[in-house]
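Researcher: I need the complex structure. Ligand is zinc ion. Inputs:
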Amino acid sequence: MAAESEKIYECQVKRRRLKLGGGYEPFWKLKSVIEALSDDDTEFRCPDCTGAVRLHRRYVVDAPLPYISHKLKTDSEYCTAGSFFRKATDGRQPRLSQHPVR
Ligand SMILES: [Zn+2]
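Model: Output:
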């Protein structure tokens, strides 16, 4: 189970760009979640640990901004944006996701 209380307002979205010499190559672009939604982005990941995230859209008028949270608890435990990481008191070091979204 992921941390339901987690709210991350920035994400990376997968985009494609023209490659030198022809063709396209994917790259990850940092933007706010609300901006990604208005741009119709569909592929998201955590900007800090590159782990998989769940998207939470705004669904009532007075709700806060749309946000993402980690899908994997292990990501949340070792990501600087993770709620479990922030609550940890063992002085652990952050690390990239062991299941990065590529
Ligand atoms: Zn993360």
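Model: Summary of the prediction. Residues 46, 48-49, 51, 70, 75, 79, 81-82 surround zinc ion (CB under 6 Å).
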